[in-house]
Amino acid sequence: MNLEGLSLVGYNRVKPAGKPTAAINPANGAELQPGYYWATPQDAAHAAQLASTAFGEYRRWKPGRKSDLLRRIATLIEENAPTLSERGKQETALPVARLQGEIARTSGQLRLFASLLEEGWWLDARIDHANADRKPLPKPDVRSLLMPMGPVAVFSSSNFPFAFSVAGGDTASALAAGCPVIVKPHQGHLGTSESVGLLVQQAARECAAPEGIFSLLFGPGRDVGMALVKHPLIKAVGFTGSRAGGRALMDAAAARPEPIPVYAEMGSINPVFLLPGVMQQAAEALATGLHGSVTLGVGQFCTNPGLIFIEPNPEAPVFLEKLKGLVSATPPGAMLTPSISSEYQAGIKKFSKAPGVRRLTNGPSQTSAGIAHAHAELFVTNARTFLTERTLMDEVFGPSTLVIECGSRSEMLAAAEKLEGQLTATVHGTEEDFAANQDLLAILETKAGRLVCNGFPTGVEVCHAMQHGGPYPATADGRSTSVGTRAIERFLRPVCYQNFPDTALPDELKEANPLGIWRLVDGQLRQG
Predict the structure, then answer these.
(1) What confidence tens digit (pLDDT) does each residue in 468-500 have?
(2) Where does the pLDDT of residue 118 fall: very low under 50, low under 70, confident under 90, or very high at 90 and above?
(3) Residue 373 neighbours by CB under 8 Å, 6+ apart
(4) How does DSSP classify residue 475?
(5) Which of 239, 274, 205 is nearest to 453 (CA)?
(6) Which of 285, 307, 342, 357 has its CA 20 to 30 A from that of 18?
(7) Is the distance from CB of 345 to CB of 374 less than 8 angstroms?
(8) CA angle 251-255-261, nearest 5°?
(9) pLDDT tens across 315-345, in order?
(10) In angstroms, rounded to a whole number, what is the distance separating the alpha carbons of residues 335 and 346?
């Protein structure tokens, strides 16, 4: 695979301009070749124009043809998995086994959307037949379905160089919806992004897709990214990253003459509640499981458990001592980028200085130019401090967690009420615990998109029922998800046809149902 460090606009590479920026190996600071040239706002405008033109044709593609494109992308990624995982390891310091699993997830979700397209129910086709005899006014014939919105700008994440990146869930769901995609890759994995981008471009060519269905623009978010979000031909945005970055995109999109939706995943501290019955039975096992979840991938998961709530219990000291020992013995790991490591160290220092917070570990940090190592850390405070110290709800992205010792059940409920919107909330308990804590569960239903019972939040299953999104500020719109087939709904809008002749209707709404899809007909689900 020939990497040139150039953006892809349609089926062409952008001519180099300015000085190249090197990709960095975060484990040792080594510069990786080639150097990468940033795209310009003019390149963004060109990509948006090509995407808008391509949308006119691509939105009319039959489901089977779009499925073929998604499956071809998946196949090409699988065929090039060794090359992709090796470059990914160099740029992210993630182990090859983790990257291979992520590649499999990426191709799997592409195929999941391909299968969804062929089933048709995702279109939410609805038909209400006319009734000329209705009094006092005749009832019209009304039919509706979901249709693609238009070109989508996708911002890759730092922590998933494949599954939340160039051909990840945002791209897969947008292409499945019928929307061209322009990707702004993360600067932490430039070569990996170019590699995957070339494969998407190849698949588009082989499937005779219109030029502009896919583009890839390297460069800072504040420049090329903002140029995309502000361009009038872009109709929606998918983003995974920080709250500050997501908020900036939301504000820019809302300030447009034609505001557009920004589906931003912006971080989460994923609280875990350990109820008394299960603590009494399995204190050390809980500590072991939480340690594994907190330190998985050097803590660089959006579902990393950053808060652990416990009530008074004779086994609580056993739990804390076990967790402290495990965290203290965790070897340092290389983080994704030097800047992520620096931000982690800043978060650790802030927690260490917070009044009423005890640092139970004290791992020395090593962060210099190009080297991004971090130690796991454990903090403890009480519920009264948590309720008054606003900064303790800030996300510290990395292998750390804060234990909140609640003096009573009422303090635990008050702490739960104080939480901001989260991607996940986890509860460990016995059947008796759950029966006695229905009020806690009711609170958490208003705070998180996914509730986890007697498990750990890290790891997000790609399936039809998954919800990976929560109330603000976890995501910009808590009604949306970036994982699972429901993610396609972000890039669709309903269109209604009233009193149209059958010949002028989309096939999905024609009376004979030539596609054989499930539809809501006069209030009844039917496939015939």
Answers:
(1) 999 999 999 999 999 999 999 999 999 999 999
(2) very high
(3) 332, 333, 334, 335, 341, 365, 366, 367
(4) B
(5) 274
(6) 342
(7) yes
(8) 65
(9) 999 999 999 999 999 999 999 999 999 999 9
(10) 14
User: Rounded to an integer, what distance in angstroms lies between the CA atom of residue 412 and that of residue 440?
Assistant: 8
Q: For the chain, what is the mean pLDDT?
A: 96
Residue type, 375: H
d(CA 465, CA 184): 28
The neighbour count for residue 134, using CB atoms within 10 Å, is: 10
Question: What percentage of the chain reaches a pLDDT higher than 70?
Answer: 98
The tens digit of pLDDT for each residue in 159-202 reads 999 999 999 999 999 999 999 999 999 999 999 999 999 999 99
φ/ψ (deg, to 5) at 160: -130, 90
Q: Please give the C-alpha separations between residue 188 and each of 8, 24, 82, 193, 361, in angstroms, as whole numbers.
A: 18, 8, 19, 9, 29
For residue 99 the two structure tokens come to 């990257």
Q: Tens digits of per-residue pLDDT, 344-356?
A: 999 999 999 999 9
Determine whether 430 is exposed, middle or buried from the number of CB atoms within 10 Å of its CB (0-12, 13-18, 19+). Answer: middle
Contacts of 448 (CB under 8 A, 6+ apart): 421, 422, 423, 424, 425, 470, 471, 474
Residue 468 phi/psi, 5° resolution?
-120, 80
Q: pTM, whole model, 2 decimals? A: 0.96
Residue found under tokens 């060109």: 46
C-alpha distances out from residue 427 to 231, 452, 481, Å: 44, 6, 21
- Active-site choice (91, 179, 211, 302): 302
List alpha helices for 269-337, DSSP H: 276-295, 316-328
Q: Angle 378-400-222 (CA atoms, 0-180°, nearest 5)?
A: 150
Interacting residues of 291 by C-beta distance below 8 A, sequence separation 6+: 323, 326, 327, 330
**Given 265, 311, 315, 411, which residue is catalytic?**
265
What separation in angstroms does the CA of 390 have from each of 198, 393, 444?
A: 45, 6, 19
Distance CA 439, CA 478 (A): 22
C-alpha 23 chain-centroid distance: 23
pLDDT tier at 437, thresholds 50, 70, 90:
very high
Q: 213: Cβ–Cβ under 8 A, 6 or more apart, which residues?
A: 51, 54, 58, 175, 180, 181, 204
Residue of 205, 122, 189, 185 lying closest to 491 (CA atoms): 122
Q: Please confirm, yes or no, whether 302 is among the known catalytic residues.
A: yes
pLDDT at position 511 over 80: yes
